[in-house]
Amino acid sequence: MIVDAEKLAQFQKAIIEYWQTHGRHHLPWRMTADAWRILLAEVLLRKTTSAQAAEVYIQLADFTPQHIKEMDQHILAEMLKPLGIYQVRAAQLQRIASDVVEHGEAALGSDEFLRKLPGVGRYISNAVRCCAFGVPAPAMDTNMIRVMARIFGWHSALKRPREDRSLWKRAETLVPADKPREFNWGVLDFGAVVCTYRKPKCNICPVSSICIYYETAYLPMSGSL
Ligand code: SF4
Q1: pLDDT tens sequence across 95-127
Q2: Alpha-carbon span 217 to 171, nearest angstrom
Q3: Which of 18, 202, 204, 216 to mutate to test the pocket of ligand 1 (most atoms within 8 A of CB)?
Q4: Which of 55, 86, 120 is the last residue of a domain?
Q5: Which residue among 86, 120, 154 closes a domain?
Q6: From the CB of 69, is ligand 1 less than 6 Å away?
């Protein structure tokens, strides 16, 4: 299902404006276009908060893949401790660093290469390729899934919507070619702050006029997302 061009343009514009005005510009991995650092941040961000990940990221951001590969795994694990599952994370990060050293950092522009790395799926691959190389690939996390369901009525039949190929295909149609980073960051922040899982702030929402959920929210048959 392709979105009507006018609705799509309105959505993209509103999300990019949201990013420009309210986006979390201070997150350190949003201040770089370095593919290794962005990949590092995405690995750190799994199953933790951005505030916790930021503290660890700042300590590790200047280490090259070679440094991480050669680091004593216990020392690396200690640095990763605040994030939880730190031993697994340390081993995984060293395996990733080792593959990057072997193939060169230019390989981080390849979806195929990225998705062979341990713990790296479509989301991380898209986030790295978009933020480092400007590829208009959607960073479809739970926030984007929720926003798409509410605004466009796109629901997945799968238990894990992040594994739904057709939903990924639909998400791809939303990302503007000229501002893919800003769009992805905007959706993420908009979903985390305005279109929240519980009690979305529809009264201050800049896209309520095109939102299916908003239109139907007060009808008896409307469902909760
Ligand atoms: Fe989300 Fe409400 Fe905005 Fe729709 S109107 S996008 S449900 S915050």
Answers
A1: 999 999 999 999 999 999 999 999 999 999 999
A2: 23
A3: 202
A4: 120
A5: 120
A6: no
